[in-house]
Amino acid sequence: MEDEDLDELLDDVERRFCRGGSDATSTGSSARGTAGHVTRRAVKPEQPISSDLADLDALLEDFLDESGGSSLKTQAFPERGEKKPSSQSGGRKCCPVFVGGSSVPSGVGTATSKRSCDQLRCTSCDFRVLTFDDCEWDASCDYLFLRNNVPDRLKLAARLKKRSGSRAFACQCSWFTATEPTDLRGRAGLRWVCGRHRD
Ligand SMILES: [Zn+2]
Ligand SMILES: [Zn+2]
User: Fold this and answer.
1) Who surrounds ion ligand 1 at CB < 5 A?
2) Domain boundaries, the chain
3) pLDDT one-digit tens code per residue, 23-56
4) How far is the CA of 109 from the centre of ligand 2 (A)?
């Protein structure tokens, strides 16, 4: 009984976090979905519980940051580890993955919220993807240039041109300039994947 309550509360909190972190356009259906919970729980003092959970999340992130791995997570918080460990404490992934111009907000992309992923990683060269707001790659940018200069942002600037509204992306093997939300599934040459976002 106790555990079930906690599970439901966790779910509620998760939903609230998700909504808070994502675009307003997604509130329509999910708000209806949680309405039942909210009214049913109105009699309970849920504020302290929520903030406790927020603290727990912060604590958990600290642990993860220090340990750099996920093994400690299940030992320190077995009750959370037994639940779906990948869906919450590991962060959220873009699905589908978008890259966008500098006016496109960064964050977790979804089909209804086309945010520009700022946690991209290249599965080909295994480098993190660098981003440069209000820039585009010069036509002279090539593989060798990236090979020699990534991830040195100062050296990379040599082949970036100022262009308001654009956002330039590069790993050590590929480069791309985005002006509007672009679904990476349509870019066969780019082996970039979302490396998870920590809220
Ligand atoms: Zn992402
Ligand atoms: Zn690469």
Assistant:
1) 94, 117, 119, 194
2) 2-82, 98-194
3) 444 444 444 444 444 444 445 554 455 556 566 5
4) 21
